[in-house]
Amino acid sequence: MPTKKKTTRKTPDHRFRAIYDRDVAWDEDTANELLALPKGLKVKIFAYDPVMKRVDFKLRFPKGYVEPRHSHKGWHCILVTKGRMCVAGKDLRPGDYVFGWDELHGPYEYPDGCEVFVVFGGEGTHHVWDQDTFLRHRTVWKAETAAGKKAVTRSEEARKRPLEKRKAEKRASTRKKGVHYDGSREKLVRIRNLQGGRRR
Q: Which class in CATH covers the domain with range 21-141?
C-alpha cells in the first residue's frame, strides 16, 4: 500500500479555536528554538499558521531575566498579562502593550518576572543579538519583591562570570604573545612601542 504524501496547507488556517489555557503546557525547549534568546523562557503556543507566517503564544519570563537588545525579521505585538516588563524607560504592567519589528529594541528587564501574550508574524521569530553587549548589561530596574531582588542578583552574577572568563582568556592570549597587558589601552601601546612598533 503506498504511503500517503504529506500535503502542505496552501491556504491560511482560519479555523475557529476556543482553547483553555490549562490545556496547553509550558515548554522551555520550544521557547529556545522559537526565539533564540538566553535560556530560561517558557512558551505556550496556541496557534501557528505557516501561510500567514503568524504564531500566537504566551511567554513566561522568570524573575531577574534580561532580554538582550535585539532585532528580528518578523514583527510582534505583545500584551503584558502578569508581572512587569521594563523597556524603553517604561515600567509596563498588565494591560500594557509593545510593538517591535526589524529595528533594534530593548533590552527588556523582568525584575519580578512577567507573562505576556504575543502575536508574532512575518519572516522570522529568531532574535538577533550581541553576546558581549548582553553580558555587559547591568540591570537598571529595581525588583519590588524579595524573590525578585535575589533573582536579579543571581542574573547579574550569571552574566558577570562568562564576561570575566572572556577577559581572562584575552589577557592570557596577550601574555602568550609576550605582551603583559593589564587592560589599559595606553599601557598596551607603550609596551608595543618598546617592542619595536605596532603589532598587526
A: mainly beta
